[in-house]
Amino acid sequence: MNEELQLVEEKNSSSLRLLSQDYQQMSDAAIWSAFKAGNESAFIFIYQKFFDSLFEFGGLFCRNENLVKDAVQELFIEIRKSRSKLGGTNNIKFYLYKSLKRRVLKEQKSGFYKLLDLKNDYSFSVQFSHEQLLIDRQLSQEMVEKLNKSIQQLPPRKREIIYYFYYENLSYQEIKEIMGFSNVKSARNLLYNALDFLKSSLL
């Protein structure tokens, strides 16, 4: 853990334990507002709640764990320093995902990590479990394996949109933002195209 983040967490660990239950009952918008207003307990709550999922999410774009871990920690340091200037959000996870994706892709193409000869092409590697496949909860294990094989045959962008829509339950508007589409229709069309391929592969 970055030293700056560790000191903050240690300093607020006791108060965080007392307030954690309260935060669990609060909306994302309220927690984010408290964080923006300078509440350190709100920041640590966000950090502890989302660090693991952010690390896992970053790994979908990059297999270099050090790069991903650095990117997640730098993201938290950055939002803590500039909290008063940040916009509002009613979905903290989505806000952080969108920011982390930009950071990870940027780091892969520049600076120290470029010297490691990492691939600069766009990638998205995901393997769904039976529980994660929300398209049809009645799928057998055999069908899940077949569907996963078909998903791996999709181009990265189509794998990505399947993940956002069925695993993260993002709306078309959120998918548009995180994938950089100019309009919602483009996001919807990409998802439909991906689903058409998957349906045909299962026939």
CATH class of the largest domain: Mainly Alpha
Q: Report the major sheet.
A: none
Give me the CATH superfamily of the largest domain.
Answer: RNA polymerase sigma factor, region 2, helix turn helix motif
Helix/strand-derived category reads mainly alpha
- The total count of helices amounts to 10
Rounded radius of gyration (Å): 19 Å
Features:
single chain; about 200 residues; mainly alpha; Rna Polymerase Sigma Factor, Chain: A; Arc Repressor Mutant, subunit A; 2 domains; 10 helices; about 70% helix; about 0% strand; elongated
Summarize the structure in short.
By secondary structure, this protein is mostly helical. The protein is 69% helix and 0% strand.
Structure overview:
There is one protein chain. The model is unreliable at 113-121 (pLDDT under 50). This protein is an all-alpha fold. The protein is elongated, with a radius of gyration of 19 Å. The chain folds into two domains: 3-115, RNA polymerase sigma factor, region 2, helix turn helix motif (Rna Polymerase Sigma Factor, Chain: A, Orthogonal Bundle); 141-201, Arc Repressor Mutant, subunit A. The protein has helices spanning 3-24, 28-36, 40-59, 65-81, 92-108, 111-115, 141-153, 156-167, 172-179, 184-201.
